[in-house]
């Protein structure tokens, strides 16, 4: 028999079995798990996971407000609102907002930049802390050779996790993320290194969370091919942080690691930054604000939030997580990766006007191919 599965692995496997064999009871599901996965799982545990899956709770992204210490400036024009499940937290206009006026600027809590900038950092052409590009040689780290703007940037990096990334195991983990172009892993490494030194677990906990197995369930994809990859990454991850296990808490478990990866995937801004206040902003297919990178030197670090139109007091601030020009069905499919079914005014309107639902398209496609 193989090792006992984590709750996340078991939850994903049971969801797939129930989709394939919806009439099977617990005893027969237990037999199927033994046949297909070589897992010896008790009926009590299977019942517990099935009850959780039926309630829907594990598949709802969990979201909490950021601690005040994590937010440098909360502009007077907005306030945090808790909408409750499944939406969680959000930002609402505390006063009438005029179009064209910057609402706030924000630096990242961590940044796992896009790979072209990461490669430039590795070549010594950009600061490994703030992402500023160089016209001259950067200030090097004596231990690993990474380049920084100056000693101040180097010291700030060391205070927020760079010392761990200097180790041989840390470099191996970053190389693995680069080889697999795995930005979520890169970001989780940066976040873990930071909390290992700063103990800011309350900040990491506040970012919206949805595990990797659950994300695959939403997109109806088969996660089986990824589990060995996740395990390999987890082993490298534990090796890199073996001297910091006590500070990691749940992240030191495989289930916590998968939640961490899901957390990064949900919250990373498109260029790789993780921002405490920005993470409060929910999606709409008709967003009323946009995120811009206006600073030339730190173009992929500091962000500026701009209103797209006048926003009345009390209206929620929203951005788009995807290309809003996509048709309804495609938007719905892509937003499943964030663990929700968009009910913004545009989606409600387009559905009412007859935009085809994704499930209907899937049924039609299967019927056309003769697939039951």
From TrEMBL:
Q: Which residues cross the membrane?
A: none
UniProt superkingdom: Eukaryota
Which molecular-function annotation in GO is an example for this chain?
histone H4K20 methyltransferase activity
Keywords (A to Z) from UniProt: Methyltransferase, S-adenosyl-L-methionine, Transferase
Please report the stretch or stretches of sequence annotated as the SET domain.
Answer: 76-322
UniProt entry tagged with the keyword Transferase = yes
InterPro entries reported in the protein's UniProt record: SET_dom, SET_dom_sf
Q: Which Pfam families match?
A: SET
An example GO BP is:
negative regulation of gene expression, epigenetic
Which reaction equation describes what this protein catalyses?
L-lysyl-[histone] + S-adenosyl-L-methionine = N(6)-methyl-L-lysyl-[histone] + S-adenosyl-L-homocysteine + H(+)
Q: What is this protein called?
A: Histone-lysine N-methyltransferase SET5
Native organism is Cylindrobasidium torrendii FP15055 ss-10
């Amino acid at each position: 028999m193989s090792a006992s599965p984590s709750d996340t692995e078991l939850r994903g496997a049971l969801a797939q079995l129930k989709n394939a064999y919806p009439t099977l009871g617990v005893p027969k599901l237990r037999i199927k798990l033994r046949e297909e996965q070589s897992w010896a799982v008790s009926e009590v545990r299977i019942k517990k996971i099935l009850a959780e899956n039926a309630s829907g709770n594990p598949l709802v992204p969990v979201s909490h407000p950021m601690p005040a210490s994590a937010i440098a400036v909360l502009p007077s024009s907005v306030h945090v609102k808790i909408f409750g499940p499944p939406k969680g937290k959000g930002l609402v206009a505390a006063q009438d907002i005029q179009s064209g006026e910057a609402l706030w600027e924000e630096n990242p809590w961590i940044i796992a930049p896009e790979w072209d900038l990461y490669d430039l950092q590795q070549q010594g052409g950009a600061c490994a802390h703030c992402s500023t590009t160089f016209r001259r040689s950067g200030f090097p780290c004596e231990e690993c050779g990474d380049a920084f703007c100056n000693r101040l940037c180097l010291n700030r990096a060391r205070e927020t996790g760079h010392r761990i990334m200097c180790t041989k195991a840390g470099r191996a983990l970053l190389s693995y993320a680069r080889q697999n172009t795995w930005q979520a892993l890169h970001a989780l490494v940066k976040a873990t290194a930071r909390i290992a030194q700063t103990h800011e677990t309350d900040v990491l906990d506040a970012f919206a969370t949805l595990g990797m197995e659950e994300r695959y369930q939403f997109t109806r994809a088969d996660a089986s091919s990824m589990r060995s990859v996740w395990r390999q990454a987890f082993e490298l991850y534990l090796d890199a942080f073996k001297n910091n296990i006590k500070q990691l808490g749940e992240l030191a478990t495989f289930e916590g690691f998968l939640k961490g990866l899901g957390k990064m995937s949900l919250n990373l801004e498109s260029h790789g930054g993780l921002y405490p206040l920005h993470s409060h902003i929910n999606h709409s297919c008709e967003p009323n604000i946009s995120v811009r990178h206006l600073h030339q030197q730190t173009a992929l670090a500091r962000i500026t939030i701009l209103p797209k139109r006048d926003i009345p007091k009390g209206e929620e601030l929203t951005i788009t997580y995807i290309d809003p020009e996509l048709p309804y069905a495609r938007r719905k499919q892509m937003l499943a990766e964030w663990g929700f079914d968009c009910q913004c005014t545009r989606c409600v309107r387009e559905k009412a006007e007859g935009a085809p639902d994704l499930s209907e398209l899937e049924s039609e496609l299967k019927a056309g191919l003769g697939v039951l």
